[in-house]
User: Fold this.
Amino acid sequence: MRLTSADSRGPTYRSQRLKTVWLLALPFLYLSRPSPRLLLVGALISVSGLLLRAYSAGFIHKDRELAIGGPYGLLRHPLYVGSFLLGLGLSLAGGRWWYPLLFSGLFGWLYHRTILSEETELIHRFGQEYKAYRGQVPAVIPQLRRDYTPPPVPGFRFWLYRRNKEWQASLGVFLGYWILWLKMSLAL
Assistant:
């Protein structure tokens, strides 16, 4: 789904997020001080985020149907939660105590705006169906006990995973960890 800022001719929130990531990637890698322990802990967190993103991508048929099955039955934005986990893992692996704080603040700011814009678009596109879903399913923190049971929907669809190009997130995270490992190994 292509969501734009208030000025419809302006950049999409997705393009703003991607530009911000690339703008910060070089200083992050240059200043990082990874260690074997931090790489392992960070990788475990990032892999959990990648798995959540991959699973979610197999349920979302963007612009065509409201995603309510699988992880979308627990959270309205599981892709974003997955992105947070993979970024948090990378920031921890970077070895600077302030990386996770900076990442969390920047992520919260960017994705809060993204979620508001996306939910406005979803209300416009799906109307009362989305409003009812939004009233039952939390945005990013799952509730342990609630009365919502999503209606039956098709399960994970691998063709949607491929169509949504989720492999790109895995490639980016792999590249980030490879550079951190290389930096640690060469003691740069």
Notes: Helices lie at 13-31, 36-57, 78-93, 98-126, 128-136, 158-163, 167-186. The domain at 13-140+154-186 is CATH 1.20.120.1630 (Four Helix Bundle (Hemerythrin (Met), subunit A)). The mean pLDDT is 86.
